[in-house]
Design a protein that fits this description.
- Helices cover about 35% and strands about 20% of the residues.
- The protein has 3 domains: about 1-40; about 45-340, 3-Layer(aba) Sandwich (UDP-N-acetylmuramoyl-L-alanine:D-glutamate ligase); about 350-490, Protein-Tyrosine Phosphatase, Chain A (Alpha-Beta Complex), CATH 3.90.190.20.
- It is globular, with a radius of gyration of 22 Å.
- It has about 500 residues and is α/β, with parallel strands linked by helices.
- The strands form 3 sheets. A 9-stranded mixed beta sheet has the order 2-3-1-4-5-6-9-10-11, with helices on both faces.
- The longest helix has 21 residues, at about 305-325.
- A hairpin with a 2-residue loop joins strand 12 (about 350-355) and strand 13 (about 360-365).
- It has helices at about 5-20, 30-40, 40-45, 60-75, 90-95, 100-110, 125-130, 145-150, 150-165, 175-180, 195-205, 305-325, 335-340, 370-380, 425-435, 450-460, 475-490; strands spanning about 50-55, 80, 115-120, 135-140, 170-175, 190-195, 230-235, 240-245, 255-260, 275-280, 295-300, 350-355, 360-365, 385-390, 420-425, 445, 470-475.
- Helix 4 (about 60-75) crosses helix 13 and helix 7 packs parallel to helix 9.
Length: about 500
């Protein structure tokens, strides 16, 4: 029987949400913060006996969470998730509190319920022991907001602490040398996903790509054990790829779930086809090199463009399959079912979200660290519908105060659209970086954050019919931008 404290915490959370909504504000974190203050164990109580799945890592958390949520819904599940992306303890608690009503209704109707919860990588160590997930996904580790997270080794330790506080089946990105190390001591409950090594190698040879004046910064060039520099037989981007240490023998683990792809067609454009593969329980890509193997292959269209989203898509399908195996629902959550459902996924708020503005479109892509910005610039360079780019850079606490990371991005090898717009509190820093990459000053329209709305109007007005303005904000500038879009173009708020 739930305690009086628990019920009072729920009551106060609902009252807080009601008051915030009356003021026209989103109630994504404060209700959970109030509830946890009253009952510090409330999240554990809300998650008790629930089928929970967590997603953590640096990049791709929100997109992967959104993909997993849509797959489960397409497979007939009632899903509770932190739709706004609020992924600290307060945000996760808020989502669970306001998901109670739908969970109870679904259970009365005989429908299965699952909780898909995005969790901040720095907070995962404290959250996982309360959620007690059945499956936990770790996407990747990239340098991000060093003033908050510290070095990547520290972030990995926090994730490891969370994994050791629960008995979750673990799903790791095999191509990330930092993430894949988390299997040590947890081998029996770990599975891997990644890109096909053969596909990476063949695409590296056929499409080597351009390189800038300086190589893009890598976050994991050296073996964490013996400090020897890794060698790669194939790479995707950043430090992701088929790595090996010539000194201690550490190397990439062949994944059970993997993507086969061909860059002859550009994944930056819509309708890109890739092949998702499942070698089967207890097997890996290395067991699936011939046609007579039992590997399941499914050709699907990438629902959200971008090479990085192929990783997110594979993580999502893999997580649903592992969750089905854990819950004993391998029929509704078979590999074929999950892969087919993936094609119905839509972009999450600010993650390749395309919005129609009359006869034109805008596409919003959150960028918050070197690898994320590099991937976004690569996508814009390859997008056939790109007619302009609008970049916004702030340096508030939620963004990270230090913006020097923009100089770690390979701007020089990227092709910019003819129309370039820059705003944000640190618009001068971004404009300077773009100028140094070789873009002529007369092509850049740069304005301070105070007039970013007027600059947005100008950018949209000059976008050709049928084309797209790609907008690349960091976190707080993205929230400000969304507020402008809600008021001017009647979009719904991101928490709805």
């Amino acid at each position: 029987m739930a305690s009086l404290r628990y019920h009072f915490a729920i009551f106060c959370a609902k009252g807080t949400k009601f008051a915030l909504n009356l003021m026209g504000r989103g109630a994504t974190t404060l209700p959970g913060k109030v509830a946890a203050k009253i009952d510090p164990k409330i999240l554990a109580k809300l998650c008790k006996d629930r089928d929970c799945l967590t997603i953590t890592g640096t990049n791709g958390k929100t997109t992967t969470t959104h993909m997993i949520t849509d797959i489960f819904r397409n497979c007939g599940y009632e899903v509770v998730t932190n739709v706004s992306g609020a992924n600290l303890l307060s945000g996760v608690t808020t989502s669970m509190i306001f998901g109670l009503k739908n969970m109870k209704k679904a259970e009365k109707e005989g429908r299965k319920v699952i909780c898909v919860l995005e969790t901040d990588e720095a907070a995962f160590g404290k959250i996982a022991c309360q959620i007690m997930p059945k499956v936990s996904v770790v996407t990747n580790l990239f340098r991000d907001q060093l003033d908050r997270f510290g070095e990547l080794s520290h972030t990995r330790e926090l994730i490891a602490k969370g994994l050791d506080s629960c008995e979750a089946e673990i799903l790791l990105n095999s191509d990330d040398s930092l993430v894949s190390e988390l299997y040590k001591g947890r081998e029996a409950r770990t599975s891997f996903y990644g890109f096909s090594e053969r596909a990476m190698r063949e695409n590296n040879e056929k499409y080597p790509g351009k390189s800038g004046l300086l190589p893009a910064s890598s976050d994991a060039e050296y073996c964490t054990g013996c400090k020897e520099k890794y060698t790669y037989t194939a790479r995707s981007f950043g430090h992701l790829g088929a790595f090996a240490c010539g000194k201690c023998g550490k190397k990439r683990v062949a994944p059970r779930f993997f993507v086969e792809y061909d860059l002859a067609r550009n994944p930056a454009n819509e309708g890109y086809e890739m092949t998702l593969c499942d070698a089967g329980a207890g097997r890996s890509e290395s067991d699936a090199t011939t046609e007579d193997t039992v590997t399941t292959r499914k050709v699907v269209k990438l629902p959200i463009p971008g090479t990085h989203n192929m990783y997110n898509a594979m993580a999502a399908v893999s997580a649903c399959v592992r969750m089905g195996e854990k819950m004993g629902d391998t029929k509704n959550l078979s590999f074929d079912q999950a892969a087919a459902a993936l094609e119905h996924v839509e972009a999450a708020f600010g993650r390749m979200e395309k919005i129609a503005i009359g006869s034109k479109k805008i596409c919003v892509m959150l960028v918050k660290n070197p690898v994320g910005l590099d991937r976004a610039l690569s996508l814009v360079a390859g997008a056939e519908d790109a007619d302009g780019i609008y970049m916004l850079l702030n340096s508030n606490i939620a963004d990270g105060k230090d913006v020097s990371w923009i100089w770690d991005v390979d701007f020089e090898s990227k092709t910019f659209p003819k129309k370039v717009y820059v705003s944000g509190d640190r618009y001068g820093d971004m404009m300077l970086r773009i100028l140094y990459s070789g873009v002529a000053r007369e092509r850049i329209d740069a304005q301070p954050m105070e007039v970013c709305a007027e600059l947005l109007d100008r950018a949209i007005s000059t976008t050709a019919d049928g084309k797209c303005l790609y907008i690349l904000p960091n976190y707080t500038s993205m929230l400000a931008l969304r507020s402008i879009l809600v008021k001017r173009y009647h979009l719904k708020d991101f928490w709805k």
